[in-house]
Amino acid sequence: MTSNGSSQAGTVSTPRAGSNAQPGAGHQPGTRRRALAAAGLGAACISASAILIKLAGTGPATAAFYRCFLALPILFALAVVERRRRGPRRLAAHLGAIAAGAFLAIDLVLWNHTIADVGAGIATLLGNLQVLFVALAAWVLLRERPGRRFLVALPVVMAGVVLVSGLAGAGAGDSHPLAGIVFGIGTSLSYAAFLLILRQTSAGTRHIAGPLAEVTTTAALGSLLLGLAFGGLQLDLPWASLRWLLLVAITSQTVGWLLITSSLPKLPAAVSSLLLLLQPVAAMGLAAAVLAERPSLAQLAGAVLVCGGVLAASRASPPPA
């Protein structure tokens, strides 16, 4: 999941000449460091979702719907408190959150279909192509040119993602490889659109829970409609499945995305998108701890490449405007 900073939705503030500050990031290094820490911790929380969804054992649309629906009581309670403390938001911010939620619904459903069609390895790689789309869109639409260190780190990180995904042995014997690739690219495109829209509409406001509550509501409704339209939706789940999905709702859809949403407007789009590539690495570690899945040497090497590349890119000074 990426972010750019702007003073208002749809606009990009321009730093003074010679300044290293990014839109929305301010001029304090401490703000940037806190945003990096929040994005990294949020990515770690979200990384647990794949394992928990696997333990729940439900269909793609069902998992996408329940992870959003079960998070709504907490998010709306936080949104009410936030509105009382910080006041209302602009209409454009509400509409932007709804648009972002629609893309999130598509992302969640397509991602689960990708796993089913081509396996977790290739799905991990395809689902993380969003960093390319986000960097390109931020450059073209928002005039955020990626720094030199980011451009150097990107192929290193993507190579690490390939190794972490276990791509060499993935996909063999899968019955729908072409459909899986199409679903995977659609996942990355919708994820990139979600991140960019959420970042732009969250910039210039101190509200965090309100936008996320609207995003999650729209994503729940979108997942429900997609499940009804294409089949596979199951609403009467046993408690054995619901408890895992409830845990996804708390750790990923609530805590994880609150941290990420708070950091999105404070970081360049390309850097925040790259930070979210820590998810497959964290997921690999959690799978080893929870599911006793032992990573190979190639996967461990990939984890080192991802973490090292992300660290190098995130420590880079953004280019002057």
What does this structure look like?
The longest helix is centred in the middle third of the chain and has 37 residues, at about 90-125. It contains 12 helices and no strands. It starts with about 30 loop residues before the first helix and ends in a 6-residue tail after the last helix. The radius of gyration is 19 Å and the shape is globular. With about 325 residues, it is mainly alpha-helical.
Q: What overall geometry do the principal axes of the alpha carbons give?
A: globular
Alpha plus pi helix count: 12
What string, H for helix and E for strand, traces the elements in order? Answer: HHHHHHHHHHHH
Mean pLDDT: 75
What is the number of strand segments? Answer: 0
Uncertain segments are: 1-27, 169-174, 317-321
